[in-house]
Each structure stands twice: as C-alpha cells, then as structure tokens.
Amino acid sequence: MNLYLIITLLFFILSVAGLWGIFEKAGEKGWKVLIPFYNWYIWLRVIRKPLWWYIFLLVPFINVFVILLMIVEVLTSFKKYGLVDQALGVLFPFFYLPWLGFSPKEKYFDPDKQPPVKKTIVREWVDAIIFAVIAASIIRIFLIEAYTIPTSSMEKSLLVGDYLFVSKVSFGPKVPNTPI
C-alpha cells in the first residue's frame, strides 16, 4: 500500500475523531461527523455561524478557506485566541482537533456567550499577511498563473515579452516555480 495513502487516511481519521469529540463537547451527537455534508451543517451550528456559509463549502477552492476559517472558529470556541494556537490548529488540525476533542482540560464555550476579543494592530497585520500569502499560493497553484513569453519560439502568434494568464484548471495543478 502506498505510504502517502496511509498517511492521508491516518490524518483523515484523526481529524474526524477530533471533530467527534468537539461535537460531543458542544452538545451534539458525535456520530453526526460521519455523515458527509450533514457534518458541515452541524459544524456550522457548533460554531454558531449562519447557514449561508454552507454555500461557500460547496464551491471548490473557496471551501478550503472556509474550512480553515471554521477551524479557527472552533479554536475560539475553546478560548484559543493566540496566534500560535490558531496557527497550530490550522496547520495541524489532525493533531490539534483530537487534542481539543478528547482532552479533559479543554472546555467548549458557546461562541454567542463569549465577549468579543480585541486583536492588536500587529495581530491584525499578521493575520492579513498570512491570509494573503495562502490565498495567492492557492490561486497560483490551482487556478491561474501569469507568464511572460521569454523567447521568440512562438513568434508567429506571440511576441517576446508578451504577458498571458494560463488556466491551471485546464492543465491541472503544479507547484509554482519560484527562485526561493
């Protein structure tokens, strides 16, 4: 069996197990995490977000951002407001969610009953920069990328130095080539 498949299945099972525990701490039945699409509805109820968010979960590429945002909202339901906590939760949900769901020390707090948290100006900027980098990377990897024609090999149709956007949807994703 392929090692990548095993790791992916393990991460999936850990994430589902973590959400099971989180659902139960929030007063929902844990088994509801096993039902596709319905689990998103329950998750939105747990974090007290409106039902129209569900529409974004059905849109490819946008759903990635919405799920990351839903993970952050789960973390705030457990009073994890720090940048390190939220970064760990988003980068490693397959470890962080089970820890929240099954740790007896961690308690769920209804988001509607929590006071609003004031972020510092530095935190606001860090959040915005991180979001911009992630959004730009996902767009370049999966949707479109800008290119410049480097040589005269396409002289009859394109000139050297012409700019064009290439649809990644047509050709499949590829990690962008960067000098770093």
Task: Provide the fold topology.
Blueprint lengths: L2 H23 L12 H9 L6 H5 L4 H16 L5 H9 L1 H10 L18 H23 E5 L14 E5 H4 L9
Antiparallel strand pairs: 1-2
Helix pairs in contact: 1-6, 4-5, 5-6
Description:
The protein is mainly α and 180 residues long. It has helices at 3-25, 38-46, 53-57, 62-77, 83-91, 93-102, 121-143, 168-171, and strands at residues 144-148, 163-167. It has a two-stranded antiparallel ribbon with strand order 1-2. The protein is elongated. The two termini are 34 Å apart.
The termini sit apart by 34 Å
Radius of gyration: 20 Å
Structural category is: mainly alpha
Silhouette: elongated
Taking the sheet with the most strands, its summary is:
2 strands, antiparallel
Strand content: 5-15%
Number of strands: 2
Mean pLDDT across all amino acids: 88
Condensed summary:
With 180 residues, the chain is mainly α.
Entry keywords:
single chain, 180 residues, mainly alpha, two-stranded antiparallel ribbon
